[in-house]
Here is the input.
Amino acid sequence: NAGVMQNPRHLVRRRGQEARLRCSPMKGHSHVYWYRQLPEEGLKFMVYLQKENIIDESGMPKERFSAEFPKEGPSILRIQQVVRGDSAAYFCASSPLASGSNEQFFGPGTRLTVL
Amino acid sequence: QKEVEQDPGPLSVPEGAIVSLNCTYSNSAFQYFMWYRQYSRKGPELLMYTYSSGNKEDGRFTAQVDKSSKYISLFIRDSQPSDSATYLCAMSGEGSTLGRLYFGRGTQLTVWP
Here is the structure.
């Protein structure tokens, strides 16, 4: 049973370009979460999605960031017009949640470097 | 004041020692408490998951939650060099806030042979 998959594992972008990060949840999980980890800081919540719905986006920056989890395919975190401050590790997690459990299982992360 | 406080360490212990890791929090609405282990440049791995107050044991790991003091702990018995990692505490509320985890900064642990 494959775990949470993220790709790419490493992404390099120049300032002003777009970054697209993909996440496939564990089999049977329909809830996806995105977190950002800056150097020397803990993980910060960004957004919580179910299929075709954004449940909680209170941690998302108001501009340039968006996320989706379509009916088919992986969840996508999109960062437009990247700046150096966007350089971080971005982690995706998934959970079944339907049973009331909040156990979140994390992927290996995408390390974004903005030049 | 941050919602979750965790001493970043570093913490260095000899093999076989008992390790105690702690977090404090300020939000009394938190009901779910977790400990994750994160190796360098890897994703966090869920170690322990508890609901409300009490203790939970799993092998060499014991998690304790004291909601009256807003204090959670993770104990590692008979520590091994393979336990060397960063340990993150995390917690969440219920209902509409169930999905959002609040993390501590993590405590870096080294177990030397």
Remarks:
- Chain B touches chain A through 26 residues (CB under 8 Å).
